[in-house]
Design brief:
With about 260 residues, the protein is mostly helical. Helices cover about 75% and strands about 0% of the residues. It has twelve helices and no strands. It has helices at about 1-5, 10-30, 35-40, 45-50, 55-75, 80-85, 90-95, 105-110, 115-125, 130-150, 155-185, 190-245.
Length: about 260
Amino acid sequence: MRRIFRNVPVWLVMAAVVAVVGATCFGQAASKPTTAKAADDTKMSMWELLVKGGPLMIPIAFCSLIGLAIVIERVIALRRRKIIPPRFLTGLKTVYRNARSDRTAGLEYCRANNSPIARVVATGINKFHKGEEVVEKAIQEAGTTEAGKLAKYLRMLYAVGAVAPMLGLLGTVTGMIKAFQKVASAKALGRPEDLATGIYEALVTTFAGLSVAIPVVIFYHYFLSRIERFVSEIDDVSIEFMEHYTAPDTTEVAPRKAPAVTAR
């Protein structure tokens, strides 16, 4: 059972939690007596307005749950102290003084400070005795892998931002088709509320789709810029690490420069 839950994505668990909480809140809102509505029929709650959007509101709501879950998960995962622990390199220098004799101590320090920068540096420590080209390639590959992990779920977040407004547009089209069907059949001429049903669906789905897509796209680009800054900082720390341990008295065979860490 534990193995099964380990394979479940974090965003999916968060989406389920958000769905349960949201359904509970909306259920409580729908069960409340609508005394205000009796006094003024022209006013309606947000829940009643969303219901007017028709069946396409269901996939739009599903997109909003996925987007919210991924945003929460990435906000938690992309905290600075989890990517680059404070004073990581300073602490490493205190235990890893010599590139040959202190290899085990350096690796243990990296494992104790488990983070993307620690894993990149640990890769360099493991290959330090094999020469410049091997270390350079190993650090570059490790940096690329860690950059890919930082961008986890961002493609799905981008997909949510692209699909949500398209669903809203589809709702607009279906709503206007229903409205004009009423006009064409001459049934809506004497009953404006029948014509308004299609227009409601058209406008509400557009509103819902854009309301989901706009914040999702904003967070998507925010996460991208944040990841780019982290990758740049990892690159700087890697260069500083290599420059510190390429002195002639620290190791017999050591690289003279550090490779740049690039995002995928």
